[in-house]
Specification:
By secondary structure, the chain is of the alpha/beta class. The protein has 2 domains: 255 residues, 3-Layer(aba) Sandwich (Aspartate Aminotransferase, domain 2), CATH 3.40.640; 130 residues, Aspartate Aminotransferase, domain 1 (Alpha-Beta Complex). 36% of the residues lie in helices and 15% in strands. The chain has 13 helices and 12 strands. Strands 1-7-6-5-4-2-3 form a 7-stranded mixed sheet, sandwiched between helices. Strands 8-9-12-11-10 form a 5-stranded mixed sheet. The radius of gyration is 21 Å and the shape is globular. 53% of the residues are buried. Pyridoxal-5'-phosphate binds next to helix 3 and helix 4. The site of pyridoxal-5'-phosphate has 16 residues, from helix 3 and helix 4. It is an enzyme of class 2 (transferase).
Length: 391
């Protein structure tokens, strides 16, 4: 296997889909295999003491299957270096410990992914890294939450989950940089196909590759991508020192998913637009939340920084919590379940499922809210399923 730096990162000027399919890996020099082999090897024979072949010595530090994925991740985010982790939360934990120290402070979204909030509130806090929540849609409120000198990271999700709030990445990068902090963007909901935060001034991109990048609900993983080589060294050091790496089988599956991200995302967006058109104006639905709607408060910013508006939709139903639960249970093509971003459509009740742990806090979501992860099935079947489920 050969890999040159020109294959990955910002040196690769090919189009998005070409990078997704080819970056990070050249057909195997010996066999011509077009896909990276699954290198199920923990260690590597050395040609004399310290004589490493391709830099490989032990698979926590580096594994060729993971290297291929990491090169492709860097290329699709228009970054310089990519890192693959065992989960999205493992990637986040590595960022926190690489880029903050006890006594430091982080601004986080006031509607952060529940696991991210838990990581800051129950884990990072004990380690001494404090956090304050702020609404990502309100640049002034984020600026007000920054404590100059103490805030090391401004952490943003856009769109957020499940209210699909939009943060202006360029403006938030300025807020962070003016305070001497770094901007971290969790790009899970948009995926690198729809939004590339590093090109808008973000310093660090993090993903749960479990979602759209993997795309088939068959693997859990995480990623970090950066441009700055000093940041890359710090993340890379902690990836090895903390050890939450993606294994070769998981790296293979994630990389396979990444290759079709562009076509999948376009279909997710097409289908979501059809579903939004059906829900919007239906008397059984009181509100549709989708950044593609002109009525969405973040529509203009989303239109500027995203290629399209994604496959996630939230909506509220007339009839309150009982109706919302019944709709979730009556749906058949939409599978009742947590997670998102796979080829299959999912429906869930955030108040009782993904966001049950934030009930009674500022992050509480309306109890008549339903969240859809619109998959890539036949759009007519999705609309008919929702029509039936709404009763
Ligand atoms: C799922 C998710 C995570 C956590 O990723 P895991 O792979 O489940 O550890 C982080 N951020 C967002 C926005 C997510 O949806």
């Amino acid at each position: 296997m050969t890999q040159t730096s020109a294959d990955q990162g910002r040196a690769n000027k090919a189009g998005f889909e070409t990078r997704a399919i080819h970056a990070g890996y050249e057909p195997d020099a010996m066999t011509g295999a077009v896909n990276p082999p699954i290198y199920a090897s923990s260690t590597y024979k050395q040609d004399g003491v310290g004589g490493l072949r391709g830099g490989y010595e032990y698979s926590r530090s580096g594994n060729p299957t993971r290297t291929a994925l990491e090169g492709a991740l860097a290329a699709v985010e228009d970054g310089e270096r990519g890192f693959a982790f065992a989960s999205g939360l493992a990637a986040e934990d590595t960022i926190i410990r690489a880029l903050t120290a006890p006594g430091d402070h982080v601004v986080i979204p006031d509607d952060a992914y529940g696991g991210t909030y838990r990581l800051f509130d129950k884990v990072a806090k004990l380690w001494g890294t404090a956090h304050s929540p702020a609404p990502v849609a309100d640049v002034d409120a984020v600026a007000a939450a920054v404590e100059p000198g103490r805030t090391k990271l401004v952490w943003v999700e856009t769109p957020t989950n499940p209210m699909l709030t939009i943060g202006d990445i360029e403006a938030l990068a300025t807020v962070a940089h003016d305070a001497g902090a770094l901007l971290v963007v969790d790009n899970t909901f948009a995926s690198p196909y729809l939004q590339q935060p590093l090109t808008l001034g973000a310093d660090v991109v993090v993903h749960s590759t479990t979602k759209y990048v993997g795309g088939h609900s068959d693997v859990v993983g995480g990623a970090v991508v950066v441009r700055d080589l000093d940041l890359a060294d710090r993340i890379g050091f902690h990836q090895n020192a903390m050890g939450a790496v993606a294994g070769p089988f998981d790296a293979f599956l994630t990389h396979r998913g990444l290759k079709t991200l562009g076509v999948r995302m376009d279909r997710h967006c097409d289908n979501a637009e059809r579903v939004v058109a059906f829900l919007d104006g239906d008397p059984r639905v009181t509100e549709v939340i989708y950044p593609g709607l002109a009525s969405h408060p973040g529509h203009e910013v989303a239109a500027r920084q995203m290629k399209r508006f994604g496959g996630m939709i939230s909506f509220r139903v007339a009839g309150g919590v009982e109706t919302a639960l019944a709709v979730c249970e009556r749906a058949e093509v939409f599978t009742l379940g947590e997670s998102l971003g796979g080829v299959e459509s999912l429906i869930e009740h955030p108040g009782r499922m993904t966001h049950a742990s934030v009930a009674g806090t500022d992050l509480e979501v309306p109890d008549d809210l339903i969240r859809l992860s619109v998959g890539i099935e036949t759009a007519d079947d999705l609309v008919a399923d929702l029509d039936r489920a709404l009763g």
